[in-house]
Design brief:
Mean pLDDT: 85
Low-confidence stretches: 1-35, 366-384
Strand content: 15-25%
Helix content: 25-40%
Largest sheet: 6 strands, antiparallel
Shape: globular
Structural class: alpha+beta
CATH class of the largest domain: Alpha Beta
Number of helices: 18
Number of domains: 4
Length: 544
C-alpha cells in the first residue's frame, strides 16, 4: 500500500508541485529550485489556463482542470507520488485511525483505472481473495474506467450486509473476474491474530503498520510470553506497509546493540537519515522466523530487510513486493494533499529493493515467469538463473553482517522460497461469486448453537469436518448462479476448500484466531517456517 511515511525532519513547503498550486491560489512564490526553469513553466501553465478560461467554447471548472493537471504531472514520476482530493485525505485518516463500512480496499486511480493498492487484512475483499494490483473495471455491471475517486468511494462503501459486484482485471487472467462482495465494518487493527502454536512457539500476524501497531504488537508478545513463548513466527504476508516509524520501532524490538535498521537518501539531503537500534529491549534474543509474500510491501520490507541483513531472523515465503520509496504528504489549502516521494530507503546491507518503474507504472516482466518470484519485474531482457532455493542469481548480490548472500533488484528474497499451491479456475469463480461467503453465513446461522454445545474453540479446530452434503450445497448454489463448474477441478481443490470453509465457519463463531489456526494447517509457507525455527534459534544465539 502506498502510504504516508514518517520523517522527523521538517521540510519547507517548496518545490515544483507546491509552487504550481501556490501560484494558482494567488500565493506569493518564495523560491523555486530546479534545473529546468520552473518559473517559465509555471507561467506557461498559467497562460494556458487563462486562455482556456477566457476563450474555450464552453464554460470550464478551473478547479477540476487544475486537479487534472496535477494528476497528469505526478503520473510522470513514480507509482507512489499522487494527488489526494480533500475527501481522499479525510478517508485516508479514517483508514488509519477509526473504522468504516465498505468492501475493505485501498486504491489509486492510475490512467483512469481503479488499481487496488491492497485489501485491508481481515476485510471482505481480503477474505474473497482480491489482491494488490487488481484493477477494478466495473461496479455492479457499469464501467468504472474513468470514474472519479469520490464516485468510486460512493459506489464501494455502504451499509454492512449490502452487496456490490466488482469486475476485476488481474495480470495473468485471460478474462475479467466478477467478485460479489458483502460490505462489512472494516476494523482498523494491526495485529490480526496472536496465539501459541505449541508450548514454546508463538505466532503473530501483523496486517499493516498503522499508528498503534507497535503497542498492539507489544501487548501480543507479552501475552505470548506469559504463556511460555520462547520463539516466534512473525507473519507479514499481505502486509502492504504503513508508517516507517512503526516499522523501525518493531525491528528495533528484536535487534540488540546500536545497528543500522534502515537509511534513506534523497535528492534533498535534508531527507538523508540513518535509523538505528537501541539496546535493552525484551525480545532481542527471541528466535525469529519472518513470513513474507509478494503482498508484503513498504514498511514490511523495512522490517524484513533489517532482520535478514543483520542475520537476526530467517525469512520464508515469496519475494516481497519491492517498494523502496519513501513518501511525505503535504497538505494544500483546500484540504487536498500531495503525497510526494522524497527519498529511497536502503536496508543495512545497502539494498534498495524498489522494483523498476517508468512514468508512474511498474515495468512488466518480459523474461517469463520466475521460479518462485512471480512479482519480480525486471526491465532488462537477460536470462535468469536460479540456485537450489529458486533465488534469481542474475540479480545484484549483497552480503549480510555474517557474510551470507542476499539479493537486491526488487523486493526482499527469502532465505527459503516456498510458494503456496494455486487454486483451479472453477474454484476461483465460485469463490469470487460470493457463494462460499453466503454458504458460511447461512450455515452458521442454522448451526451455531449446536456447534457451541459440542465444545469450545479448541474442540472445533480439532474435530469440525466439512461433509459431502456441505460440498453439494455449495455446488447447488453455484448452479443457481449459473457458474460453469468443472467437477475435475472442483475435486482437486476439495481439500483446500474444506480448510477455507472450516476457517470461515470458525471465525464467525469463535473469532479470528480460530480462522488463522485452521488455515495454518494447510499452509506450506508456515510449515516451512516452523521447520527452520531451529536455524533461527542458532542465529539468535550468535547474534551480537
Amino acid at each position: 500500500m502506498h502510504k504516508l511515511f514518517y520523517n522527523r525532519r521538517r521540510l519547507a513547503l517548496t518545490g515544483g508541485i507546491l509552487i504550481v498550486v501556490s501560484a494558482l491560489m494567488g500565493a506569493r512564490i518564495e523560491r523555486a529550485y530546479s534545473s529546468d526553469n520552473s518559473l517559465e513553466q509555471i507561467q506557461k501553465f498559467g497562460d494556458v489556463l487563462r486562455d482556456v478560461q477566457a476563450y474555450y467554447v464552453d464554460s470550464v471548472n478551473v478547479g477540476k482542470l487544475t486537479d487534472a493537471a496535477i494528476v497528469g504531472m505526478l503520473g510522470q514520476l513514480d507509482p507512489h507520488t499522487i494527488y489526494l482530493p480533500p475527501q481522499s485525505v479525510k478517508e485516508q485518516d479514517e483508514e488509519f485511525q477509526g473504522n468504516f463500512q465498505g468492501i475493505g480496499v485501498t486504491f489509486t486511480i492510475i490512467q483512469d483505472t481503479i488499481t487496488v493498492d491492497a485489501p485491508i487484512p481481515g476485510g471482505p475483499s481480503d477474505l474473497l481473495g482480491i489482491r494488490a494490483g487488481d484493477k477494478i473495471v466495473s461496479i455492479d455491471g457499469k464501467t468504472a474506467v474513468g470514474m472519479k475517486e469520490d464516485d468510486v468511494r460512493k459506489n464501494l462503501r455502504g451499509p454492512k450486509g449490502t452487496k456490490v459486484t466488482v469486475g476485476i482485471v488481474r495480470y495473468g487472467e485471460p478474462k475479467p473476474i466478477d467478485f460479489t462482495i458483502t460490505r462489512d465494518v472494516i476494523p482498523i487493527v494491526s495485529v490480526m491474530a496472536h496465539f501459541m502454536v505449541d508450548p514454546t512457539t508463538g505466532y503473530v500476524d501483523i496486517g499493516r503498520f498503522a499508528g498503534t501497531t507497535y503497542d498492539e504488537l507489544m501487548q501480543a508478545l507479552n501475552d505470548l510470553k506469559s504463556q511460555g513463548m520462547q520463539r516466534l513466527i512473525l507473519d507479514l504476508r499481505g502486509n502492504p506497509g504503513g508508517y516507517m516509524e512503526q516499522a523501525v520501532r518493531i525491528a528495533d524490538e528484536f535487534i540488540g546493540g546500536t545497528k543500522t535498521i534502515v537509511y534513506t537518501k534523497g535528492r534533498d539531503h535534508d531527507f538523508d537519515d540513518v535509523l538505528v537500534s537501541h539496546p535493552g529491549d525484551e525480545f532481542e534474543k527471541t528466535p525469529l522466523v519472518v513470513l513474507v509474500d509478494n503482498g508484503s510491501a513498504s514498511a514490511s520490507e523495512i522490517v524484513t530487510g533489517a532482520l535478514q541483513d543483520l542475520d537476526r531472523a530467517i525469512v520464508v515465503g515469496e519475494t516481497t513486493f519491492g517498494k523502496g520509496l519513501v513518501q511525505r504528504q503535504y497538505p494544500l489549502p483546500d484540504g487536498s494533499a500531495v503525497r510526494l516521494t522524497i527519498s529511497r530507503y536502503y536496508t543495512p546491507s545497502g539494498r534498495c529493493i524498489q522494483k523498476p518503474y517508468v512514468g508512474g507504472e511498474y515495468v512488466k516482466n518480459t523474461t517469463g515467469t520466475l521460479a518462485a518470484n512471480d512479482n519480480f519485474q525486471n526491465e532488462d531482457n537477460y536470462a535468469h538463473t536460479y540456485d537450489l532455493q529458486g533465488r534469481d542469481t542474475s540479480r545484484p548480490k549483497y552480503h549480510t553482517a555474517d557474510g551470507r548472500v542476499v539479493y537486491g533488484g526488487g523486493g526482499i528474497t527469502p532465505d527459503y522460497i516456498v510458494r503456496n499451491d494455486t487454486i483451479q479456475q472453477t474454484t476461483r469463480k465460485i469463490w469470487a461469486s460470493g457463494v462460499l461467503n453466503d454458504f458460511v453465513e447461512d450455515y452458521v446461522a442454522e448451526h451455531i448453537e449446536q456447534i457451541q454445545k459440542e465444545g469450545d474453540a479448541n474442540y472445533f479446530v480439532k474435530n469440525f469436518k466439512i461433509t459431502d452434503a456441505m460440498f453439494n450445497n455449495i455446488l447447488h448454489r453455484a448452479k443457481e448462479k449459473k457458474i460453469d463448474v468443472n467437477m475435475g477441478q472442483f475435486d482437486i481443490d476439495k481439500p483446500w476448500l474444506a480448510v477455507v470453509l472450516r476457517a470461515e465457519i470458525g471465525r464467525h463463531i469463535y473469532g479470528n484466531e480460530v480462522r488463522y489456526r485452521v488455515l495454518l494447517e494447510d499452509d506450506k509457507q508456515y510449515q516451512e517456517a516452523y521447520k527452520v525455527l531451529g536455524e533461527a534459534t542458532h542465529l539468535a544465539a550468535v547474534f551480537k
